[in-house]
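Lab meeting, item 3. Inverse folding demo.
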């Protein structure tokens, strides 16, 4: 990450580059609440006025939460190779869909929102421009809906998705009731004969789908030298390419 020359903010789109005018500033805050729907968190991506912009260059992967959390928060993030996470937007942004899960280069500015507003306690990134990194290509044609995470059905592909949102499909086995709480655990048997743990299942789904082919969505983690999904966010019967995915509308 390094300083960039002063440039003017403007907005224009191209096949592999998008320039996003977003030029207002913010201050540090300790407020960790999520904005209500009527707050103006969208300044992170769009603003109309032009001004001189002193920015930096950021490199990483565009990640968009496929499922909303509390107060409909469904973040768009830049995740660097070092694991740093920068929040670009509180909702999925269609203009960034072509860069989903792609390595990109962003000219922008790190900031924190006004302390008088509700916001996530995370490093925020105001974007001036974004383009795919060398060797990468944007999704074409540009998606009209939020792309789903890749589907995996074997251990090698699952391991490559470590730390990232993933759809995994296989046979649900070995359901275990919780000793505490309400979340059930199980095992997902993959097409190559391997299996990994899936946790956070609700009791009704776990009982209904045991022994059947299912699709689950969550972040892949490594546990006991094997991939696992410690928090299943959705489960669907059969192979479902968009299991649980929300557009954020």
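The presenter then showed the designed sequence:
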């Amino acid at each position: 990450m390094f300083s960039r020359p002063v440039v003017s903010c403007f907005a224009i789109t191209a096949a592999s580059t998008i320039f996003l005018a977003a030029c207002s500033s913010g201050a540090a805050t300790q407020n960790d609440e999520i904005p209500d729907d009527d707050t103006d968190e969208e300044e992170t991506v769009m603003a109309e006025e032009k001004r001189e912009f002193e920015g930096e260059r950021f490199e990483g992967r565009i990640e968009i939460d496929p499922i909303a959390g509390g107060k409909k928060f469904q973040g768009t993030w830049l995740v660097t190779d070092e694991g740093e996470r920068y929040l670009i937007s509180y909702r999925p942004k269609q203009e960034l869909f072509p860069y989903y899960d792609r390595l990109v280069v962003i000219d922008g500015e790190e900031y924190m929102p006004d302390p008088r507003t509700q916001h996530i306690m995370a490093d925020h990134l105001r974007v001036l421009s974004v383009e795919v990194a060398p060797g990468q290509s944007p999704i074409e044609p540009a998606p009209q809906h939020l792309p789903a995470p890749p589907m995996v059905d074997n251990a090698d592909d699952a391991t490559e998705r470590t730390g990232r949102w993933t759809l995994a499909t296989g046979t649900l086995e070995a359901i275990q009731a919780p000793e505490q709480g309400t979340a059930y655990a199980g095992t997902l048997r993959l097409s190559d004969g391997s299996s990994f743990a899936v946790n956070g299942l609700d009791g009704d789904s776990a009982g209904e789908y045991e022994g059947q082919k299912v699709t689950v969505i969550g972040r892949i983690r490594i546990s006991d030298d094997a991939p696992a999904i410690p928090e299943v966010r959705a489960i669907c019967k059969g192979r479902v390419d968009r299991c649980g995915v929300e557009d954020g509308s």
